[in-house]
Amino acid sequence: MPKASLRENLIAAAVQQFHAHGYAATGVKDITDAAGAPKGSFYNHFPSKEALAVVALERYGETMRLEHLRDSSVAPLTRLREHFESLRDANVRTEFNRGCLVGDLTVEVADHSDSVRATVRDSFQAWSDALALAIADAQEAGDVAKTLDASTLARFVLSAWEGALISARADRSARAFEAFFTVVFGVLLR
What would the pLDDT profile of 110-128 be if each residue is shown by its tens digit? Predict the structure, then answer.
């Protein structure tokens, strides 16, 4: 297996550092230290911390398992539930210390950076589109009412999930996740 490049190490370190500490609390030195790279090498790969944040968001998006939401060999509601269960479980494993990097950087950076705002907008759109596909499949299977279009439901479910993450972090408990699953899968997606 080939050794990861310095650029890849910087990206991985940025994802981890931004997710663990936030954008403002993470300096270039924190990222280079975590990557085992000299600080000066950072600028050989990225013009700024903001530019790296854009790449880190894109990389984080690749970990969201959106392809599972499109897997037609799995029942649509099962895909949706498993998607959110895996995200919930990851949050519980980190003891509610990390939410969603896309949501976190939206709140922290998007008002000040057009490039970060565009990337988080695209990230949320890709996520919403994948959710909408699974919801539409569930509607076609007769498992979810067609009262609302799949895109509207997907955007609402995504917004509810982001809110549940914030609440879980504030409470340091899974209560918000329990409410999310009860309402989304017990009422909304029926």
Answer: 889 999 999 999 999 999 9
Q: Does domain 6-58 have CATH number 3.30.1330.30?
A: no
Closest CA to 57 of 120, 118, 126, 12: 120
**Domain 64-188 = CATH 3.40.50.2300:** no
pLDDT at 2 over 80: no
Lowest mean pLDDT across 10-14, 73-77, 99-103:
99-103
**Given a cut of 90, is residue 99 above it in pLDDT?**
no
**Which DSSP string corresponds to 19-53?**
HHH-STT--HHHHHHHHT--GGGHHHH-S-HHHHH
pTM over 0.85: yes
- 152 touches 128 (CB < 8 A): no
Joined tokens for residue 89:
């479980």
CA distance 42 to 130: 34
Question: How many C-beta atoms surround the C-beta of residue 43 within 10 A?
Answer: 10
Q: Find out whether 177 and 168 touch, Cβ atoms under 8 Å.
A: yes
